[in-house]
Specification:
It comes from Oleomonas cavernae. This protein is mainly β and about 80 residues long. The chain has one domain. It is built from one helix and six strands, in the order E-E-E-E-E-E-H. Strands 4-3-2-1-6-5 form a six-stranded mixed beta sheet. The longest helix has 8 residues, at about 65-70. The N and C termini lie far apart (about 35 Å).
Length: about 80
């Protein structure tokens, strides 16, 4: 799966959901994920649910609490 993930892919919690960030890096240990208004986070590949069409879908329950909170505030600046 990691070979399908590319820098710039958009990040989602569900297919068809709202984008909350993008992939900034991919390495053997996981993904560097930039969350809008939240900064960068290291995410293990085990938290990836699916990868397709430039999208990475994550398992919310496999993300750490700090990352989930950042995702919840990703679009605060737009309001």
């Amino acid at each position: 799966m990691q070979d399908k993930i590319e820098i710039g892919d958009q990040a989602f919690l569900k297919d068809g959901g709202e984008e909350f960030g993008s992939v900034r890096g991919v390495h053997k240990g996981g993904i560097v994920l930039h969350v809008e208004n939240g900064g960068e986070f290291e995410v293990p590949f085990t938290a990836v649910k699916a990868v397709h069409y430039g999208k990475v879908i994550f398992h919310a329950g496999k993300l750490d609490e700090r990352l989930r909170q950042a995702i919840g505030h990703a679009h605060d600046a737009e309001q």
